[in-house]
């Protein structure tokens, strides 16, 4: 009997379930929809249609990778973030939905700067796929962005993602160890730096531990190395009324706030992620007099 979309879907789900993948049914649907370029809705209504032997083979190969704990979007090679389709590569973190909270928090700041100055300069430290910066540029057409990273592979991917999403004219990439090679001042400094304590890395799920790059995760002994480096030089690169937006680990609000306060910044806002954890901090300069904000 000819194989159909429904039969390969059921086979894939069962294979993933047998491998102990909790989200087996969902993952099977996402894999097949991504591989065949069909939306989830189309996949459901066209379930009775036959599938070619070549496609069945591609799906089985992808399901085997997922059964070995490779994440769905790594297998597909791309993932959606804030409505943008972003290519992933070896040294880029897979952008997470929680990071969209940081973008949401910063869009009003970017719009305010544009209303006042006509444009807005953004720097995204540790840009990875370019996710945060590109999402901000896509949301505010007058903004321009610089994405920095220690990884050349990440920078090449971020540039490709800018191209793919029609944002290349407003996006530049620079290899830099945090602020080291950066010149000039920015209206918005944003970063989702590595913030996991080194010791905790080996306890992470295999999907993260084996497939996200260590340089994107490892925040040093206390998880705060990157925040320290950023806090130390932020003043030199922030415009007078600029803001700093940071993603943090769920238990780092106090520690990161203390680091930035020690460098003359004040916490002006914070936000929780979809799971109710502290996830975003927004700082401004702590101006003692003439502070009319
Ligand atoms: C948690 S990932 C965030 C990636 C992306 N911004 C996102 O939110 O999906 C951290 C990024 O910081 C980069 N990184 C690590 N150490 C760095 C350093 N010393 N200087 C600049 N970037 C660094 C990593 O390569 C990685 O792309």
Shape: elongated
Radius of gyration: 21 Å
Mean pLDDT: 96
CATH architecture of the largest domain: 3-Layer(aba) Sandwich
| SSE pattern, N- to C-terminal | HHHHHEEHEHEHEEHHEHEE
CATH class of the largest domain: Alpha Beta
Approximate strand percentage = 15-25%
Number of domains: 2
Describe the structure.
The protein has two domains: 5-76, Ubiquitin-associated (UBA) domain (Helicase, Ruva Protein, domain 3, Orthogonal Bundle); 81-285, Rossmann fold. Helix content is 41%, strand content 20%. It has eleven helices and nine strands. The strands form two sheets. It has a seven-stranded mixed sheet, with helices on both faces. α2 (24-36) packs across α4 and α6 (99-117) packs across α7. The protein is elongated, with a radius of gyration of 21 Å. The chain starts with a helix and ends in an 8-residue tail after the last strand. The chain binds S-adenosylmethionine (SAM). S-adenosylmethionine binds next to α7 and β4.
Keywords for this entry:
293 residues, alpha/beta, Helicase, Ruva Protein, domain 3, seven-stranded mixed beta sheet, two-stranded antiparallel ribbon, elongated, binds S-adenosylmethionine, EC 2.1.1.297, S-adenosyl-L-methionine, transferase, N5-glutamine_MTase, HemK-like
Layout: helices, strands, pairs:
Blueprint: H1 5-18, H2 24-36, H3 40-45, H4 53-67, H5 72-76, E1 78-81, E2 84-87, H6 99-117, E3 120-125, H7 131-139, E4 143-149, H8 152-164, E5 171-175, E6 186-191, H9 206-209, H10 225-237, E7 238-247, H11 253-261, E8 265-272, E9 278-285
Helix pairs in contact: 1-2, 1-4, 2-4, 6-7
